[in-house]
From TrEMBL:
This is BET1 homolog. Its main location: membrane. Required for vesicular transport from the ER to the Golgi complex. Functions as a SNARE involved in the docking process of ER-derived vesicles with the cis-Golgi membrane. PANTHER family: GOLGI SNARE BET1-RELATED. It comes from Poecilia formosa. Belongs to the BET1 family. It is a single-pass type IV membrane protein; Single-pass membrane protein.
Amino acid sequence: MRRAGLGEGSSGHYVASGYSVHEEENEHLQEGLRNKVSALKSLTIEIGTEVKYQNKMLDDMDSDFDSTGGLLGATIGRVKQLSRGSQTKLLCYMLLFCLFVFFVLYWFIKLR
């Protein structure tokens, strides 16, 4: 009596080679999966590095903005102090100077 797939001679060789083909295919698929996993891992590491770099850049920009805000706040504070004191004449001169610069720039742009 013969069992299906378990024969003598060449049939036994066929069963063993069939198993080998499936085993090779599985190993090939496993290798492809390993490559994809390693690519995803390296991509994830690169994304993490980029996020850290972007966060550092944002922190640097925030500190620059804060220092600019501090400088602007100090300047506005000085202007308010000038307006509160008896130096209204100086504030008036400063305002007239700003208007003069504005009109000179306007005239220069209009002639272009």
